[in-house]
């Protein structure tokens, strides 16, 4: 499923990078039970919105939810605007 998310980079304009990996933090318990994750970098909000509407992204999202412990409750989404950083 993570490879499916990574594959969107070549298809969606404005999707700049996909970072995928397992939690490697030494801080015990700070992960709140999340073991794996991914970060997607977008050029702007319009590119993010195109990603959200993309049928391939939505299909992979359904797979992620189905595989997550607790279904949708096992998914954390957090958008961060770093344009001025």
List the helices and strands and how they pair.
Elements: H1 2-7, E1 15-22, E2 36-42, H2 45-53, H3 55-67
Antiparallel strand pairs: 1-2
Kindly describe this structure.
This protein has 85 residues and is an alpha+beta fold. 33% of the residues lie in helices and 18% in strands. It has a single domain (2-24, 34-74), classed as Alpha-Beta Plaits. The chain has helices spanning 2-7, 45-53, 55-67, and strands at 15-22, 36-42. Strands 1-2 form a two-stranded antiparallel ribbon. The chain is globular and about 35 Å long. The N and C termini lie far apart (30 Å). The mean pLDDT is 91.
- The quaternary structure here is single chain
Task: Kindly report the spatial arrangement of strands forming the biggest sheet.
Answer: 1-2
Low-confidence stretches: none
What is the level 1 CATH name? Alpha Beta
CATH architecture: 2-Layer Sandwich
Describe the sheet with the most strands.
2 strands, antiparallel
Give the SSE order as H and E letters.
HEEHH
Number-wise, the strands total 2
Report the mean per-residue pLDDT as an integer: 91
Q: What is the rounded Rg?
A: 14 Å
Number of helices: 3
Helix percentage range? 25-40%
How much β-strand is present in the residues?
15-25%
Label the structural class.
Answer: alpha+beta
Assign the CATH topology. Alpha-Beta Plaits
Distance between termini?
30 Å
- Number of individual domains: 1
Shape: globular
Keyphrases for this structure?
85 residues; alpha+beta; Alpha-Beta Plaits; two-stranded antiparallel ribbon
């Amino acid at each position: 499923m993570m490879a499916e998310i990574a594959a969107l980079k070549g298809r969606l304009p404005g999707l700049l990078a996909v970072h995928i990996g397992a939690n490697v933090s030494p801080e015990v318990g700070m992960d709140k039970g999340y073991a794996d994750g991914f970060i997607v970098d977008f050029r702007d909000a319009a590119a993010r919105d195109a990603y959200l509407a993309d049928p391939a992204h939505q299909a992979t999202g359904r797979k992620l939810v189905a595989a997550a412990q607790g279904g949708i409750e096992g998914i954390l989404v957090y958008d961060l605007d770093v344009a001025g950083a």
